[in-house]
């Protein structure tokens, strides 16, 4: 059975190896995507086109709590690649909050300090009876809203972009996060 163009996604991946490259650059791949997660698309790019591509995963969404290792940006939104279904057009980039080690692999211990405070436009609450302290929200939020402090997850709403992202709410596996406009 042959694969038609309609069954292929155009996937633009930002590649950068700080050890050898001067600048990051995008590479575009055409790969099957229907019914696949973004993580599976990355794996197929790795196996069929680019065995140098660096990306990370761990639990593949099967653990409770999830590991959060696969966090990346897809079309400007932070996602867990093991949970996000692939789309026909995707721009895939490393998460902007962290220093890039290679391609989509970032150093979670090296948080860039370029997140900025705003006048809070939302109120963020965590239901601590539901929260399992998986830290997915800490890793996922590009604005640095969540911090793990003394074993508790604390949100600082003044860093939130408002209602344009919403990914922390979508990916919290325990539905523990509520964001309300104020
Ligand atoms: S609020 Fe949700 S995503 Fe964040 S640590 Fe708790 S369970 Fe995990
Ligand atoms: S909605 Fe706000 S708190 Fe949630 S991930 Fe986006 S920027 Fe972070
Ligand atoms: S691989 Fe663990 S959350 Fe995606």
Biggest sheet details: 5 strands, mixed
Helix percentage: 10-25%
| Overall tally of structural domains | 2
What is the highest CATH level, the class of the largest domain?
A: Alpha Beta
Level-2 CATH architecture of the largest domain: Roll
CATH-level-4 superfamily name of the largest domain: Beta-grasp domain
Mean pLDDT: 89
The parts where pLDDT drops under 50 for at least 5 residues are none
Q: Can you lay out the helices and strands and say which pair or pack?
A:
Layout: E1 8-15, E2 25-32, H1 38-48, E3 71-74, E4 77-80, E5 89-93, E6 98-102, E7 105-111, E8 122-126, H2 136-140, E9 146-149, E10 152-155, H3 167-171, E11 177-181
Parallel strand pairs: 1-5
Antiparallel strand pairs: 1-2, 3-4, 3-5, 6-7, 8-11, 9-10
The structure holds iron/sulfur cluster (2 copies) and FE2/S2 (inorganic) cluster.
Describe this structure in words.
The chain has three helices and eleven strands, in the order E-E-H-E-E-E-E-E-E-H-E-E-H-E. The chain has helices at residues 38-48, 136-140, 167-171, and strands at residues 8-15, 25-32, 71-74, 77-80, 89-93, 98-102, 105-111, 122-126, 146-149, 152-155, 177-181. Strands 2-1-5-3-4 form a five-stranded mixed sheet, covered by helices on one side. The chain starts with 7 loop residues before the first strand and ends with a strand. The mean pLDDT is 89. It has two domains: 5-111, Beta-grasp domain (Ubiquitin-like (UB roll), Roll); 122-181, Alpha-Beta Plaits (2-Layer Sandwich). The protein is mostly beta strands and 182 residues long. One iron/sulfur cluster binds at residues 140-141, 143, 145, 160-161, 165-168, 179.
């Amino acid at each position: 059975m042959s694969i038609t163009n309609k069954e292929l996604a155009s996937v633009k991946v930002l590649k950068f190896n700080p050890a050898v490259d001067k600048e990051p650059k995008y590479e575009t791949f055409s790969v099957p995507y229907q019914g696949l997660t973004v993580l599976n698309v990355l794996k197929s790019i790795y196996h069929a086109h680019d065995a140098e591509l660096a990306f990370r995963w761990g639990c593949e969404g099967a653990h409770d709590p999830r590991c959060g290792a696969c966090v990346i940006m897809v079309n400007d939104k932070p996602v867990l690649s093991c949970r996000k279904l692939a789309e026909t057009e995707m721009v895939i980039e490393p998460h902007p909050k962290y220093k890039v080690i290679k391609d989509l692999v970032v150093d979670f211990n090296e948080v860039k300090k370029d997140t900025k405070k705003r006048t809070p436009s939302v109120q963020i609450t965590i239901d601590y009876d539901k929260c399992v302290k998986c830290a997915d929200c800490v890793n996922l939020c590009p604005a640095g809203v969540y911090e793990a402090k003394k074993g508790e997850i604390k949100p600082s709403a003044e860093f939130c972009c408002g209602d344009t992202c919403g990914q922390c709410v979508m990916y919290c596996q325990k539905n523990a996060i509520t964001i309300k406009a104020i």
